[in-house]
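I am writing to request your help with a piece of structural work I have in hand. I set the record out below, with my sincere thanks for your time.
___
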Amino acid sequence: MTTTLNRLDLNLLRVFDAVMEERSVLRASQRICLSQSAVSHALARLREVLGDELFIRTPNGMQPTARALTMAPLVRQAWQSLETAVGAPKFEPDKATRRFTIAVSDFVTIVMVPRLLSLLRQEAPLIDLVIRPDSTTDLAEQIDLGHIDAAIGTFSHKATRFRSQALFACDDVLIAKSSRHLGKLSLAALSKLPIAAVSLHGEHNAFVEGFVSERGLSRRSEMYDRPALENALSASGQSARIVVSLPHFLALPSLLEQSELAAIVPRPLASSMARTQPLTVHELPYNTSSVDVSVLWHERLTNDAAQQWLLSLLSRATEHLSDRAAERCPGRVPPLSDLRLNKRAAIDCRLSP
């Protein structure tokens, strides 16, 4: 059997399958885009290798021998398996029953995951999602090992084995409990505020300029533009007081409600929190950098159909974060229903600098 397979050109089986289906050398040649002579030559070679006539020419067409009839279903099945193996794999999300694991901060969880779950319910009800914190110190290793399908964050450097795609960009704002009535902030007023900020990884031995680096991946740790804050205040002879540095955002609403603290946070998160909490959003009296939030994955997954679908899903789940026009209004962010009813408020918001 091994000797026969070593002598066999798989293209001969393709010809055999076509003749078996068509029972005609002419129609088989047209089906597989070969000349009649090429089909006849291929059949002759296959007869020699297998030691069987395979097809007998009759007035009613090419009639298969007993050996050919035995071979036909097995060859058809094998050929279909080969086509599946070398063809582009298909991913049908509405039928798929797999699990994706993504690493995100609680900031991204709050502003993206509700929409992501809504899309999953509509398009892929059998797919499960595992959310892991991106603050884990072995994130790069977990991606390398295939334990994480995608990570979402801000990356300043990545090794060539990683790929990334921008999802949205955001800058900083300040939030405080609504009863404080801070009004329009000045640098002098800001310098007197006790401020809470978030640093995802705490004190880390690879922590440099707001980023933590490991295994060829540098990702943002300080979740506010500290250099912009310090430079703006030092230029006016003042300094900021970061009273508390937290490893996550979830505790901020209760801390702000129970104290005189204010917090510097990403704009999309401030908008989301102010819709459900008694918080006021304030524009900072200095310009902060706009940082790109991206999805990152291992290069080995780039051509995987399921991974491509996941990346598309994450992109659609963050589309609303790309339009920041309605978020640039200072003060309490109104509910979406109020924006629909109050056209003037929506117009003022779009026109604000």
User: Anything to note?
Assistant: The longest strand covers residues 162-170.
